[in-house]
């Protein structure tokens, strides 16, 4: 397959961040933070009116986008910056573009966007293809 600087990566779309998935992730992440489980806690903390998605799940959305764009590749390095929260019910889209091609090493920039609010995470990754 041929890759070029500027090529857009196919978006990875999650139609609705699932509060039920947040419960499962809380268990296997051993993350008992109630902002992922109890909307009343979120409200009491002044953080909104919906449960908040775990950061590692947001990163997984972006990793899924990268792996779908480069089947069989290995993520060599990845950095991301959290800009805002993903709330239960949010539609999220991970998308990006190629920024460098050096042999079998591909570098990308990407964002995780929430419909109507924009980027909630941004980052870079290097993949071996």
Describe the secondary-structure layout.
Blueprint: E1 8-14, H1 19-28, H2 39-44, H3 55-69, E2 74-82, E3 92-102, E4 105-114, E5 118-128
Account of the protein in words:
The chain is an alpha+beta fold and 129 residues long. It has one domain (8-128): Roll (Thiol Ester Dehydrase, Chain A), CATH 3.10.129. Helix content is 24%, strand content 37%. It has three helices and five strands; from the N terminus they run βαααββββ. It has helices spanning 19-28, 39-44, 55-69, and strands at residues 8-14, 74-82, 92-102, 105-114, 118-128. The protein has a five-stranded antiparallel sheet, with helices on one face. A hairpin with a 3-residue loop joins β4 and β5. It is elongated and about 50 Å long. The N and C termini lie close together (9 Å). The model has no long low-confidence stretch (mean pLDDT 96).
In short:
Helices cover 24% and strands 37% of the residues. It is an alpha+beta fold.
Mean pLDDT: 96
Shape: elongated
User: Total number of β-strand segments?
Assistant: 5
CATH topology: Thiol Ester Dehydrase, Chain A
CATH superfamily: Hotdog Thioesterase
Number of domains: 1
Through-space gap between termini: 9 Å
Bin the strand percentage: 35-45%
CATH class label: Alpha Beta
Order of helices and strands: EHHHEEEE
Structural class by SSE content = alpha+beta
């Amino acid at each position: 397959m041929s890759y070029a600087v500027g090529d857009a990566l196919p978006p990875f779309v999650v139609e609705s961040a699932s509060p039920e998935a947040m419960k499962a992730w809380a268990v296997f992440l051993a993350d008992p933070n109630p902002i992922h489980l109890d909307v009343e806690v979120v409200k009491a903390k002044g953080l909104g009116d919906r449960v908040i998605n775990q950061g590692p799940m947001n990163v997984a959305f972006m990793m899924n986008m990268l792996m779908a764009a480069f089947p069989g590749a290995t993520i060599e390095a990845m950095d991301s910056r959290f800009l805002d929260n993903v709330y239960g019910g949010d539609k999220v889209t991970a998308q990006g573009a190629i920024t460098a091609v050096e042999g079998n090493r591909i570098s990308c920039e990407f964002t995780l966007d929430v419909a109507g609010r924009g980027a909630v995470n941004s980052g870079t990754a290097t993949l071996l293809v």
